[in-house]
Design a protein that fits this description.
The chain has about 260 residues and is of the alpha/beta class. It has helices spanning about 10-20, 45-60, 70-85, 95-105, 120-125, 125-135, 150-155, 160-170, 170-175, 195-200, 210-220, 240-250, and strands at about 1-5, 25-30, 65, 90, 115-120, 140-145, 180-185, 205-210, 230-235, 255-260. The structure holds D-glutamic acid (DGL). D-glutamic acid binds near residues 36, 122, 187 and 188.
């Protein structure tokens, strides 16, 4: 069974993409809504929380774990692999970087430029930057942390003029540098994809982690997506608000359960 976890509700963007392509796949989702956000926390704290999240999912019978959270993928992947050597982990950074490198390889005659946006912890970890550079030393990488995006998405401020302004502000440098591709390095950012696209030149390829991740699992471990399985949703703080947002995003009624870590 697949375990999927995130710092909160954002990882449902991965569940949404998974269900769009494999509606019967069996999984348990854990959202740590009691301790979200992770994106402003220290690496030690994020690793501690992520370890507890994984332990919970293993106790539920997970054998393969999707780290839907970009902050955890950027700061805790190696620590988790070391702590749980028998578990197969899928993070969101590697497949997203692969998609960006593919785009970069299409640029000829000049340096390709890749933008990366994420939480403070993700950008501060330089995980995207390091992997991009390992794949192509010629790249120009422009990064920006966008800490206001997560609360704006959670408040459903998706089409508001205030949000449009904030998006343009955060992306000013990335727009000015005329990047070839932009990595949306956070679970919540796909919900702002239209505004982000409008703030940049038309030719910029937008790379979001849910699609890149599911593409890569389909290629490497298609067997775990096959068949019919139970689908459970656990949250450390299963409040009515969480229920409302989760149902709105997934567009279906959900039974959410409390997770005690
Ligand atoms: N899930 C986090 C991420 O993808 C965003 C929310 C948070 O900061 O916890 O980086």
């Amino acid at each position: 069974m697949i375990g999927i976890f995130d710092s909160g509700i954002g990882g449902l963007s991965v569940v949404k993409e998974l269900l769009r392509r494999h509606p019967d796949a069996g999984f348990a989702y854990l959202g740590d809504t009691a301790r979200t956000p992770y994106g402003n926390k220290s690496r030690d704290t994020i690793q501690k929380y992520a370890t507890e999240d994984v332990e919970f999912l293993l106790a539920k019978g997970a054998t393969h774990i999707i780290i839907a959270c970009n902050t955890v993928s950027s700061t805790a992947l190696e620590a988790l692999k070391e702590k749980f050597p028998d578990v197969v982990f899928f993070d969101v950074v590697h497949p997203t970087v692969d998609a960006a490198l593919k785009r970069a390889s299409e640029i000829t005659g000049r340096k390709a430029k890749i933008g990366v946006i994420g939480t403070r912890a993700t950008i501060g970890s330089r995980a995207y930057e390091r992997l991009l550079q390992a794949g192509n030393t010629e790249l120009e990488i422009i990064q920006a942390s966008c800490p206001l995006f997560v609360p704006l998405v959670e408040e459903n401020y998706l089409k508001r003029p205030e949000t449009k302004k904030i998006v343009r502000n955060y992306l000013a440098d990335i727009r000015q540098k005329q990047v070839d591709a932009l990595i949306l390095g956070c679970t919540h950012y796909p919900f702002l994809a239209d505004l982000i696209r409008d703030a940049l030149q038309k030719r910029v390829k937008i790379i979001d982690s849910p699609s890149a991740l599911i593409d890569s699992i389909e290629r490497t471990h298609p067997e775990i997506l096959e068949g019919k399985g139970a689908q459970s949703y656990y949250f450390t703080d299963p409040s009515p608000r969480v229920q409302e947002i989760a149902q709105g995003w997934l567009r279906s009624p959900l039974k959410i359960e409390r997770a005690d870590l």
